[in-house]
Amino acid sequence: MAALSPPRPPPPPPSSLISPLLFFARISGLGVAFLVVSWALNFKSSFLPQSTSQEDLIYAVLHPLLMVIGFILISGEAILVHKWLPGSRSLKKSVHLSLQGVALASGVFGIWTKFHGNDGVLANFYSLHSWMGLICIALFGAQWLIGFMSFWHRGEIRSTRMKVLPWHIFFGLYTYGLAVATAETGLLEKLTFLQTMRNVSRRSPESMVVNGLGLGLAFLSGIVILAAVSPMYDNLQRKLVYSSDQIKNLMS
């Protein structure tokens, strides 16, 4: 007869690693938001040096704001929802899906701003930055659609959903990393243009802001990805307890 397993202890608090990561993610996110807003508002003439149209200037300034704050920062926050939001799994998934929907809408509108102009639809889509941006939005949209269908169709076989989940996580983190890499290529492209065509000094305030923004995005993405892949201590502890109980029952 199998021996009765001892009562399981109450689940311990979340891993001590998660809370500092969430704190630094929020701080670095605020820093990135501050830098991109400062760049867009304080150096507006750099975005459209050859145009005097106020409408063109608004669209040009909206592009970095939407792609960095609306797309990268909000999608990063959506990735971290499962690590900090209390409540049921269904609540976490619904908030995650909603935030990713906002990020997708911001990304689509941010790319649409580059279609606006008198040079034609494809005038701004010739560089590595633009190609990566289109691929990133396409992958993000497909990822969100799969998540939406999975959320509203919960009758699938559990084994099938468990097989799809690792791929969903992988492509989610890959797309987020691709979005940051795309932003970095855009910053490099813009700064190179300013320094060669506009004779902006390498040590000018604008160069420092753009370089700081690039470093901030790199730092933020590392924290978000690390927090996303770090296991919660309570879930890990429960798995260890369950495995220990199963071994004791088999040996009894």
Automatic annotation (TrEMBL):
PANTHER family: CYTOCHROME B561-RELATED, TRANSMEMBRANE ASCORBATE FERRIREDUCTASE 4-RELATED. It comes from Trapa incisa. It is an enzyme of class 7 (translocase). GO terms for cellular component: membrane. Its cofactor is heme b. Its EC number is 7.2.1.3. It is found in: Membrane. It catalyses: Fe(3+)(out) + L-ascorbate(in) = monodehydro-L-ascorbate radical(in) + Fe(2+)(out) + H(+). Its main location: membrane. The chain crosses the membrane at residues 21-41, 61-82, 94-112, 132-152, 164-188, 208-229. It is a multi-pass membrane protein. This is ascorbate ferrireductase (transmembrane). InterPro entries: CYB561/CYBRD1-like, Cyt_b561/ferric_Rdtase_TM. It comes from the Eukaryota.
